[in-house]
Amino acid sequence: MPDEDLITYASACASRNEDLFALLSVDATASESEIRRAFRKKALTAHPDKAGSSYDPALYTRLEKARDVLISPEAREAYQNGMRAILQKQQAKDAMSARQRRFAEDLEAREQAAAAAASKKQKTGGGQQQEQELSAELQASLARGRAILEERNRKIREAEERERLRKEREDKEMEEKEADLERRLKEIERRKAEKKKLRKADKKDKKNDAKVELSGSRGASPPPLQAGKEEEGQTGTAAPPTDNEDTAPGGGGFPALMARLKAAQAKKEEEKKRRAMEEAMKA
Prior knowledge:
Blueprint: H1 3-15, H2 20-24, H3 32-46, H4 48-51, H5 57-71, H6 73-95, H7 98-219, H8 229-235, H9 254-282
Helix pairs in contact: 1-5, 1-6, 3-5, 5-6, 7-9
Domain J: 19-83
Keywords: Chaperone, Cytoplasm, Nucleus
InterPro entries: DnaJ_domain, J_dom_sf, Pre-mRNA-splicing_ERAD
């Protein structure tokens, strides 16, 4: 038992005029060792292992408290001071007249009633204080719980926001990739169309060239007979060629030669244009 509780219990015993020395069967001047020895002797008759069915828990508790009070210097002094005050008051009361004694007893009864009321109020106040402490602790626990819940909700909201931003970023990247892929496909289709167009134009040019060559070969006149061929054997000299003779190798006449030359030049120009367009597309 703490010292303050012992002192309070000692004062209460003194106010009740309870003789703790007599309870332990020791003298008021008994030492600590004598008090301990007396307690062990009394405890043999009051201990549950020794008393059996006649065990009195209240008596055993009183013996323990009496021992604790009397071996504690502060509690023993408080108890003895209280007992001396009661003894002095009793002696003064005995010296009073009957009227004074009744007045003193009435005053003492009022003091005891006031002390009991104060003790009850203190207990009630202590209960209220305990309830207030419990209520404050409950409120603090609720506040901590709300704070923890709010922190958890905040983390959940932050995680959801991060997830939303991540999805938006992924969706945007996917849209950009799809747009880039679509642009590339369109570019490929455009290049295919241009190549197809160029191939058609090339085929058309080849057909035109073939037609030009065919028409040139059909429109060429056969070479005229050389005049004076018979005389060549006689004189030994060949007659000079006329304007209608074909001086180019292969024959065919001058108009056909010019047509083939123009067709070859046109084909070269077309080939240059086609290569220039292909290089531009590659760039």
